[in-house]
Amino acid sequence: MWFRNLLVYRLTQSVSLNEETLIKALETKLAKPCTFQELSTYGFIAPFGKSEEASLTHVSQDFYLIAARKEERILPASVVKEALQEKVDVIEARDARKVYKKEKDQLKDEVIQDLLPRAFSRKKVTYAVIAPSLGLIFVDTTSTAKAEELLSTLREALGGLPLRPMSVKVAPSATLTDWVKSQKASDGFHVLEDCELRDTFEDGGIIRCKRQDLSSDEIQTHLKSGKVITQLALMWQDKLSFVLDDKLAIKRIKFEDLLLDEADKEGGDDEVSQFDATFLLMMMTFSEFLPALLEALGGEEQPLGI
């Protein structure tokens, strides 16, 4: 149970939550298999354990782990396009007339419905943690669309969920650029060797660097010419490394050996205990890491009225 990515959302009002209330809410939006006539389904599943008795949330201290699964039938666009063209060709040859867009759209729907029963299905799971005492929700993804899909479904289940994406007072790209220029990040953070540089004007160039000395003349020349850092690999307190982008998405999180060893030691041999120890250690680390990151980036932005 180690998150690999992170999008963080701020609860804009206090939320009263307990395990029983949350489970009852999640039960109203359970995941289900796609029928032959459905393109996709979405709903909540147990984040740990595959038995029917497995709980829809794993709770440790004031952290609530949940999971949502999307199942969708895979219909390659090329297959749909080819089947649609065959229908159009038949109609145009039979009726000696042109098939226009509106009718094509109707035919496309028919093609999709015909192909669905033969389509393969794919399942993807997204994990999230609700932390009411911190006023935060952590989602294990860098895709805003995936995060919003989970949060929208959770909002429907709970009957409301006041939140907004985490934001900071200073543009992250400005801070990251300063760190690479000076080769010194805020206390507790260390600049690593991967970054993305981008021109500030529209359709400008992009340079991606891996395992590069970011203090080199080449990199510094790009910065002097006006490029800014839009992604930067960082280390925090020898506990975790990650890549931060200019939208505050935290990617490629890697927990260092110190934490992995501690989780193994605390969890013991029992699978449930190991899962709980790993989950709690991860969340305690995030609870310490996130405030430090926000402070390093100039502080969290608080919209008027919040």
TrEMBL record:
InterPro entries on file: RdgC (IPR007476)
Family matches, as NCBIfam families: PRK00321.1-2, PRK00321.1-3, PRK00321.1-5
Pfam family, one: RdgC
GO MF annotations in UniProt: double-stranded DNA binding
Location(s) in or outside the cell: Cytoplasm, Nucleoid
GO biological process: DNA recombination; regulation of DNA recombination
Domain of life (superkingdom): Bacteria
Organism from which the protein derives: Entomomonas moraniae
Record's protein name: Recombination-associated protein RdgC
